[in-house]
Structure formats: C-alpha cells, structure tokens
C-alpha cells in the first residue's frame, strides 16, 4: 500500500515541477513580448450621427483611429464635414445589412476610405488614418 502512495506522491511532484517549468517559460516569453514598442494610436471622436436608410434609421458614434496626433487634429477640424458625409453615405447601407457583421464591416470600410479621401483633400496624409470604428451602432427598423 505504501508503494502506491509513494508513487502517487512522486507523480504529483513531477506534475507540479513540470507546471512550474512551463509557467516560468511562459512568463519569460511574455516579458520579451512586452519589450516590443507598439505604435502609438490617437483617436478623434466625430460625435453621434443618425442616418436614414432602407428599412429604418441607424445611430452610430463613430471615432477615427489615427497613427499621428496631427492626423487626428485634422480630423477634428473637418469633423462637421465628416459627420455630414457619414449621414449621406449611411443611407446606402440598409438597416437589415447593418444587423450582420459583414454589413457593419462594409460600412466601416466605406467610412474609413471616405475619411482617408477627405484627409487627403485637406492636405493630410491619408495613410495616417488607421480606421473608423463605432463606439455604438443602433439600428431601428420601421415597418
């Protein structure tokens, strides 16, 4: 009986030792990944936008992720124009499409491309616009 207990204790100790070794190895690799410098991101909020489209209305709170502070400052200066354009562009995205992930991604892609074009027209670098994202997106269907 004592041989079985001794074997179980040894097996348990080996398992604990292996887990400790794995934990130390994982800790070391995560410390190395924390040494990487991630690019700094800046954000510019556009404010709430409501637009009508086929099937109802949609309310979003878009924000723009920029690679530089200067790009976000330009977005802040032209935010009113961006907001008006989002209202116009949003109408091309039916409420039913915005209920799907693919539909939301299409809207996001269209808005990102448009903001990049607006930034370029206002003598900014469009490559500094990373993406347009939504803090909130709420669609209401109208029967």
From TrEMBL:
GO biological process per UniProt: bacterial-type flagellum-dependent cell motility; chemotaxis
InterPro entries the record matches: FliL (IPR005503)
Keyword Membrane: yes
Entry keywords, A to Z: Cell inner membrane, Cell membrane, Chemotaxis, Flagellar rotation, Membrane, Transmembrane, Transmembrane helix
Keyword Cell membrane part of the UniProt annotation: yes
UniProt topology in membrane: Single-pass membrane protein
Signal peptide span: none
Family: Belongs to the FliL family.
Annotated function: Controls the rotational direction of flagella during chemotaxis.
Annotated compartments: Cell inner membrane; Cell membrane
Listed GO CC annotations: bacterial-type flagellum basal body; plasma membrane
Species annotation: Thauera propionica
Protein name: Flagellar protein FliL
